[in-house]
Amino acid sequence: MDSKSIRENFLKFFKSKGHLRFASASLIPDDPTVLLTIAGMVPFKRYFLGETPPARRITTVQKCVRTPDIDRVGYTQRHLTFFEMLGNFSFGDYFKEEAITWSWEFITEILKFSKEKLWITVYKDDEVSHNIWEKEIGVPGDRIVSMGEEDNFWTMGPVGPCGPCSEIIFDLGPQFGYGKTTCKVGCDCDRYLEIWNLVFTEFNRDETGKLNPLPRKNIDTGMGLERVAFVLQKVNSVFEIDMFNPIIDYLEELAEKPYKESLEVTHSFNIIADHIRAITFLISDGALPSNEGRGYILRRIIRRAVRFGVKSGINTPFLYKIIPLVTFIMKDSYPELEKSEELAINITRKEEENFSMTLERGLARLENITSQESFIPGEEAFRLYDTYGFPLELTREIATERNVNIDEARFFEIMEESRKKTRESREKVSLMVGKESIKSKFIGYNTLEEDGEIVHILKDNNSAEELPRGEKGEIVTDITPFYPEGGGQLADRGIIQSENGKANILDVQKKGNAIYHFVEILEGKLSVGERVILRVDRDRRKALARAHTATHLLHATLREVLGDIVKQAGSLVERDQLRFDFTYFGEIDQDTINKVESIVNSHIRKDFSVKIKELPLEEALREGAIALFGEKYGENVRMVEIDPISKELCGGTHLNSTGEIGSFIIKGIYSIGTGVKRVEVLTGEKAIKEIQEERMIINEASGTLKAMPQDIVSSIQKREEEIDNLKKILQKDEDMLASLLAEKILDNRTVIDGINIVGLLLGDVSIEFLRLIGDKIKEKLSPSIIFLGAKDGEKLKFIIMTSKEVVSKGIKAGELMKNISKSFSGSGGGREELAQGGGKPIIPFEKGLEKLKELVESSLKN
Ligand code: ATP
Ligand code: MG
Which ligand has the minimum distance to the alpha carbon of residue 222? Predict the structure, then answer.
């Protein structure tokens, strides 16, 4: 059974027993009191302390790193620093009975371990478990061993949840006792291999040391995946299981010697194979080598591995080369490894290179001391630590090999003194650091992920020591892969992360000699002096590079098509989108635009490579590179060459070859001032999107017009003609109708003082039509006052028209309208001969007409 099947079978088994399957948590717990995830239960600590879990039964395969075992790793057959723990958990749900029964069922029925080789340990006072194993499971009494508090009683601390454990042990056979005949369960050799530990958390220990029963009892079990594979695959140690085979093979290649050449080689390979897994996983989860905390653990592991590399005859940095192999072996179960691979390689290589430089000299020094004395003074141990980068543990390990002692007390004394000194001097330096002296280095042309150190933080433009969660501010690191906005190209975005916090980088700007990352803290906090990982958003960087390389092709092509008169006047490089301004006086027609677009696209298809060169300015200009007018260049310049199309001095980030641009379309060229034109271009994905959108519009138009796309224009022209004709017919008809209606009204006129007053209410017609009728009436009837309405449901539009003679008598349409609309309907107003109103009428139209007549009468009297 390979490791992958063991994982899957385990999770499947416990799923069938009602457990919720959880993914492995990070090796770096989000609990600040715990340094590393050392067991499957670590991510669930808060549920053991009473918080409500998402499910009462959970099962996981948890990645773990343990350093207390580190000195034994490689020498015993069973200890690793990095290993995977298979676990099932019950939070106040099932207890001993089920936990024991299921573990036995899984071990004997799924894994098919032979029962005769299995031993059980129980806690001496735990009769319940003893009985379950003996009476219910049927394990012979002589293979159930009672153990004391030290081995089989689990506690989280002096007070708090605790309880007895029970272990399942596999007897590997006398050959693993290494000749010892006294070997028995609980002894420290490899023969009786602990496979699975079942922890029954049933008590809460109070301050007086009394064990009080917990109201909710928990189960926490842990089984080492590598140990299970060791037994199932019938090999000699955890280092010979499937997951390690390719790594050991590769080490044989690197060291040019077989794994079993000598015990020393075997041990060294074991150590390296184990450590490289821990290194890869720790960096992937966000650890960085440093002199404190997790960072120190990582550093120690790397340095220890390097030393065993040297011991096996590998004298150049090599660890980083194994990382892709670890990723390859583990990525199916831990897909996060692929994302962090490049970073892990970079960090490990740097750490190896730094240490390799001093390792040999340090070793020689140590050799010198140990060959003369049987004692390493504290001063020497500290010197090895401080100058040669030897973690104390490493010196200790070598000392043990040579059988000499170290004055560790003195070592720690000197360590403390030196810490105090650096603290003081750092405080002094931070007082002296003015903004001018802050520097950072851009290293992002070929790297998108790097680790650096925070050297400066600004919050609201003032220096700060740290930025907590939710805050915005600016961070400067000693080196950065983030491209600051410049040369028309927008800044990179991405993530900055330390062990203690994480922030989004929203913008990057260069100020003086430093590159400022504008951040918003997402988690934890970031502080000055901290190691951080800087991770550039790759998709964005790629899209910016597509637009930037396309800009160079466009520039060269414009010069080719329009002549050298074309001079760049400005540019803006966004994601898959660019704007290029240039000087040119003539008109640029569509044919020219098409031509430019076609040429650039043919350059893209030819997939020319983009070469970057650093050279003296003189030389670049001699080679014909285009420099920007007014730009200040240093002595050495960076030349971006797309052979044979373009050579430009440029600090931007580019593609490796033009083919990566994919597609290039010109959205338009227009004039933005005398003699200055602007081209707008889309590349890559955005170009395709634009074309698709345009096609959709055309398809929609074609569907609506019921015409093939190529007939859309003629179809519209035809329709316009039709509409014109229809309009003419309509006009004629309306004219006729208006005359008829006008004719009809004449019969219903009222004459007051020689003035003809007529009124008519129509259905839903336009104001224009009412006016047309009014005009017809005016032609026939004079002097006249005309009141016409058009009713659309509840609403009414109406007009009042007065002929010239009426106006000269002082009766004006606008005033009539103002007066009448008060009692008739909402609002209205107008000029002398024509007024217009509307709204919901209060009284019927006829009554309105009456009012109008009354108004006319009274105004004539006055
Ligand atoms: P041991 O006594 O063998 O060191 P342990 O008592 O430390 O084991 P637990 O803390 O109970 O082990 O962990 C549960 C299981 O995890 C163990 O039964 C074993 O299968 C596995 N395990 C523990 N430590 C290691 C290690 N260093 N390397 C590989 N597997 C381990
Ligand atoms: Mg242990």
Answer: 1
